[in-house]
Write a structure and sequence with these properties.
Layout lengths: L11 H6 L21 E2 L7 H11 L3 H4 L3 E11 L7 E10 L2 E7 L4 E6 L4 E3 L14 H4 L8 E8 L2 E7 L5 E7 L5 E8 L2 E13 L2 E13 L2 E14 L14
């Protein structure tokens, strides 16, 4: 099933788009990060698991956990390293349990990524995609599961921070607004490069909080890939056809 009638053309910008659907970290993040001028420790920081619970509850708590499906679509401005000129694209992102699908379409290229719950596929030839369930919000959903370790991190400006490490050692750092309890950003590493997501705005849909504007950044030796996403349409708990998550050739 095609969501945007896409074709498969690989470009350097497509590498950034692997992050939209939350690629797992390839290397565990060091257990104890060094404080910098922008990072300071707060003696009053909450217990890490309580902070994780607060961040999850901000998305809707049990209602968010019981959500069957989520479909986001909208526009994206894409930037290559060192470039101030953006490329405009359209995107559709589908989540159904542990299954994901992302499609990107721009005037210059198209990109598709699929996870069927066990295997992952990308339309970029030779680019293997690991499971997306070890990074970002999918990991936050499992913070209280056996084998997931939640540890404190230094505060960053007005945000409390914590880290979740899964049983295989993959980790994500989370930054939560100290006043609202909302998850504002999260970071990890991929092939030695830092990957970051920042939420700009949210909107409540019948008790489920959805990021409506967010950014993705991937640091590489020659600069940063950067993208700004704007969600224009949100569909929650709609039926999703099974073939949406079929991996081509399987």
């Amino acid at each position: 099933m095609r969501l945007l009638n896409l074709t498969s053309k690989g470009t350097a910008v497509a590498f950034l788009l692997l992050n939209v659907s939350q690629i797992q970290a390839q290397q565990p993040i060091p257990a104890t990060p060094q404080a910098t001028e922008a990072v300071k420790t707060s003696v009053s920081a909450p217990i890490p698991k309580e902070l994780a619970r607060t961040a999850l509850n901000s998305f809707g708590g049990e209602k968010f956990l019981k959500m069957k499906s989520l479909v986001l679509s909208g526009s994206a401005d894409l930037y290559a390293p060192g470039s101030t000129q953006s490329m405009t694209a359209k995107f559709v992102w589908v989540q159904y349990g542990d299954k994901y699908r992302l499609e990107i379409q721009s005037p210059l290229f198209s990109f598709r990524q699929i996870t069927d719950g066990y295997r992952s596929y990308t339309s970029v030839p030779g680019m293997e995609i690991p499971s997306q369930n070890r990074y970002g919000i999918p990991v936050l959903r499992r913070y209280n599961d056996a084998g997931f370790l939640v540890t404190p991190l230094p505060d960053r400006k007005k945000m409390h921070a914590f880290r979740i490490t899964d049983p295989d050692g993959y980790a994500t750092d989370y930054f939560v607004d100290a006043e609202t309890g909302r998850l504002m950003s999260y970071e990890s590493t991929m092939m030695g490069h830092k990957l970051g997501v920042e939420h700009r705005t949210f909107k409540d849909f019948d008790g489920i909080l959805v990021p409506m504007a967010f950014t993705q950044r991937l640091a590489v030796p020659n600069g940063d890939f950067f993208a700004e996403f704007k969600v224009k349409d949100v569909k929650i708990n709609q039926e999703i056809q099974a073939d949406v998550f079929e991996i081509p050739g399987q």
